[in-house]
Amino acid sequence: MSNLLNIAPASPDGRPGRRELIKAVAFAVVATGGLVEDVEAAQHVHAEAVSAQKATGIYTAKEMSAAEFKTLGKLAELIVPADDVSGSALDAGAPAFIDLLCSQNKQLATTYHGGLAWLDAEMNRKFSKSFVNATVEQQTAMLDLLVEADKSERARMDESAVVKKSDFRDFSDYTFKQPHPQAAGAKFFDWVRKMTVDAFYTSPIGIKDLGFMGNGAYSKYEVPKQSLDYAMKRSPFA
Amino acid sequence: MAQIPNSQEVYDVIVVGSGAGGGTATRVLTSKGMKVALLEAGPMLDPFKEFLEHKMPADYDHRGAEEGGASYFGKGKPFGFFSTTSGGWQLEGEPYTVGEGSKFEWFRSRIVGGRTNHYGRMSFRFSDFDFKPYTRDGLGFDWPISYEDISPYYDKAEEFIGVCGSIEGIRSAPDGKFHTPPPPKVHETLIKKSCDKLGIPCIPNRRAVITKSINGRAPCHYCGQCGRGCQTASAYSSSQVEIFPAMKTGLVKVFDNAMVREVLSNGNGKVNGVLYVDKRTREHRVIRGKAVILAASACESARILLNSKSKEFPNGLANGSGLVGRYLMDTVGFGLSGYVPALEGMPHYDTEGYGGAHLYMPWWDWEKHNKLDFPRGYHIEIGGGYGMPGVGSYHGAARTYGYGKDMKQNIRQRYGAAVGFSGRGEMIPNALSYTEIDPTVVDQWGIPVLKFHFKWSDHEWRQARHMERTFTQIIEGMGGKVLGLNNAQRESGGISVPGTIIHEVGTVKMGLNAKNSVLNGFTQAHEVKNLFVVDGGSFVSNPDKNPTLTINALSWRACDYLSEEMRKGNV
Ligand SMILES: Cc1cc2nc3c(=O)[nH]c(=O)nc-3n(C[C@H](O)[C@H](O)[C@H](O)COP(=O)(O)OP(=O)(O)OC[C@H]3O[C@@H](n4cnc5c(N)ncnc54)[C@H](O)[C@@H]3O)c2cc1C
Ligand code: SF4
Question: A174, A185, B5, B294: most buried by Cβ count inside 10 Å?
Answer without folding.
Answer: B294
